[in-house]
Amino acid sequence: MFKLWAKIITDNKIVNQLTYERDEKFTYSHFFNYLTDICEGLDIATPVLLKTHIFNYAKFGMVRFIPRDFAESVDFDKLVIENIT
User: Fold this and answer.
1) What CA–CA distance (Å, rounded) separates 47 from 22?
2) Cα–Cα distance between 80 and 59 in angstroms, integer?
3) At residue 39, does pLDDT exceed 90?
4) CA–CA separation, 24 and 16 (whole Å)
5) Can you give the pTM of this predicted structure?
6) Could you give the CA distance from residue 63 to residue 55 in angstroms, rounded to a whole number?
């Protein structure tokens, strides 16, 4: 089981957040599926997921997506996903 905390940040303030949890074991190969579920829950577009995003999550337990990571325009400064397990 794992938990992820997703935060949408604008002007250094959390404007929306979501706690995402699954009963299965965390796997990096399913990270895009987790990201898609989180973005649907927050009602935002899904960003492009690169190897560097996965490496940052693996190394720091957190990944940040900024507006240039999204194919559509977004009205926030960043999307941060943290491991809280």
Assistant:
1) 21
2) 15
3) yes
4) 25
5) 0.92
6) 9
